[in-house]
Amino acid sequence: MWGDDGDDLPPDWSTTANFLVAKVDGDRKACAGATWARSAALPAPPIATAETPRAQLKARALAAFRALPQSQAIESEYAVWSKTQHEKAARAWFEHGKARPTIRVFSVQPAGPTLLSISAIIAEGGCGEDGMHRSLWALWQVDGSSENPLLALRNQPDESMTMRPTAAVDLDGDGRVELLFDGFSDAGSANVFGQPQFLEHGVVRALGDSYVHIEGPEIPILICPC
Question: Is the pLDDT of residue 11 over 70?
Answer without folding.
Answer: no
